[in-house]
Amino acid sequence: MRGRAVGSAILVLLLCAAPLHAADRIVIGSKNFEESRLLAEMFAQLLESRTKLQVERRLGLAGTQVCFEALKNGAIDVYPEYTGTGLVSILNEKAEGAPAKTLNRVRSEFLHRWDLWWLAPLGFENSWEIAVPKELAEREHLETITDLARVSKRLHGGFGHEFVGREDGLLGLQRVYGLEWKSVDHLQQALQYQAAKQRTIDALDVYSTDGRLILYNLKVLRDDRHFFPPYEAAALVRGATLKRHPEVGAVLGLLAGSLDEDTMRALNLRLQEGHESEVVVARDALRSLGLSNKEGRASETEIRGTGVLAYFWGVRRDLGRLTLQHLGLSAAALVLGALFAIPLGLWLERRRRWAEAVIRVLGIFQTVPSLALLAFMIPFLGVGTVPAIAALWIYSLFPIVRNTYTGVRDADSKAVEAATALGMTPGQVLREIRLPLAAPVVMAGLRTAAVLTVGTATLAAFIGAGGLGEPIVTGLQLANTAMILSGAIPAALLALLVDAGLGWVERRLRPAGLEVQR
Amino acid sequence: MSIAPIAPILEAVGVAKTYGDGTTALGGVSLAVHPGETVALVGESGSGKTTLLRTFNRMVEPSAGDVRVEGQPVAGLDPFALRRRIGYVPQDGGLIPHWRIEKNVELVPRLLGWDRDRRRARTREMLELVGLDLQAHASRYPGELSGGQRQRVAFARALAADPPLILLDEPFGALDALTRLELHRQFLDLKKALGKTTVLVTHDLAEAFRLADRIGVMRAGRLLQLGTPDELAKRPADPYVEALLEMRRV
Q1: Domains, chain A, ranges and CATH?
Q2: Which of A190, A274, A474, B79 is the most exposed place for a label (fewest CB within 10 A)?
Q3: pLDDT over 70 for what percent of chain B?
Q4: Which residue among B83, B94, B100 sits closest to A423, beta carbon to beta carbon?
């Protein structure tokens, strides 16, 4: 079939397009939380101002595993990582006490195994710490956790669910420092800060660069016995990239030791609570480090309005772009899906022995969680648009194949029988009777696939393919409802519109004479 | 019965059909259908009458035996060309639901490559023949017609390319009694007017007696007796035939 040939040709083209790297291009990645995005944006701006490289951003990738895989296979060239994460999550080793020891360990292992380079740390750690209200710290002269152990019998602890149960969390901490509490509550992270403000609790576990430490007037106590593993932030770069563009190492090296915890908390606060974009905050940070000579200007994306509508209006241009991107991803996946699945459905109708098995396998794909499927694409296709389309394509197949197969199979069997008995060939029966009668059913399958694809495409943001999932993912990280809605509402509307549009096509495709059955 | 002087239109010689799972649908059936006559095949469901009918246009391939149409063994013919010169009417009409009536009627002429004008003229003729008003029906869809009208269209379609042989598979089975009676009458008119050679499968013995020149009684894949209604009534060759005719009288 010609449709199938065209479909596979397009697919092959897309697959080949993936590893094509322009020689003077560099791709910066980040994880999907504000600090990682900010650091990546700083890397990007710095490289843009100090090198001739064309810088591409793939911010907000879903977590360590996705970023690391993307870096390993060259889909991205650099991303900000933490030494503790490298040791514990990537190398699967036990955390070590001293920062330098951890850094040296990950440096040698990453270089040896994957030719990945940890550049000089940026100067701050974002590790688990214990914080107490400043006023309490001053009253009781608390500087370190050892100090805290002196008075903890009189204090109420309030810790996150994860922290409480872990050996490298509260359990180990209590043993090492001999901490005892008057009482211990298990709280959600967002509630911990509120509780500390109201003095329902006196001590809590925090990440050391969380902007809310400033907002809620909390003091981080020094981990004087080095219980918590060090999580120094640094740029993690591909050796191949450094060889090709040595200037990348030199330019990013300018940031070595330049950011301390206080600075990061202030910057994070602007992202977390001020809802400023990382572009603006990164520019300000570079300027205050004397690393940017660009004139600052008021940002268009800086939205402080509290109303959801005001927010929408403020980001309307972004939304337009993201909507187009979203539609593009979905449409590409759907068209490729149809080009493959309709011929497959027709083929299966001719070879029914295979049909159940093939359709069942495609059904199994359907049950793979979307995010897992997206992550699974990365080792083969990297990050960005291509793996996102490939994953969406896989999801689109099942409804189209199933409906094509059953639609053609069940198309008015008496008419098919009579037409055959009067001398029509199977090809004529297919073209003139089965397909027209099956068209509404095939179209219904396409419609299901389209709505599914538009919905699932929101997850493409996790692997850097953009779309309306971008504000959703970022908004979830920032607990910013307006931002989440700015992605979710257009995505839902888009799904409804696509459904309605294809419903119209479906009715148009319904052969005349079928509505009037007596 | 005397041997007809003219060669039969349709001949079956020892036609048998055994399916892959070992069930035998036909156990060696022989018969000849002569020009212009209507032969009815009667029997209970599962007797093999429809299977036999379907071997005539190669909708079923026999496992043994020979079918000949106008003297040619069908096994050696292109099945599509064969079917285009055999008319066919199934129980429910089998009209193509998304085609207008006229397109349904001209199905076989179109497959045979007739030009448009000839097809048009023929369609008009056929619809008139079966008593359908051209203006009112030609551009309607099957779903807009009554069951009886649909069945007339199916007859028009079967006759459109003027085939030498027509196969009817329970064509009146799904109609209400009054409509059936009306179509029976029309069938007899058509038979008189066109003199087509016809094989009619039915489970309705009264219908067979009414419409057919000869009747074949089938049971369990065998043709028990083939003869005129009169012969069957007077000299049943088999206790089953006798019992069947008894029942008819009741």
Answers
A1: 22-125+231-302 (3.40.190.10), 128-221 (3.40.190.120), 317-509 (1.10.3720.10)
A2: A190
A3: 97
A4: B83
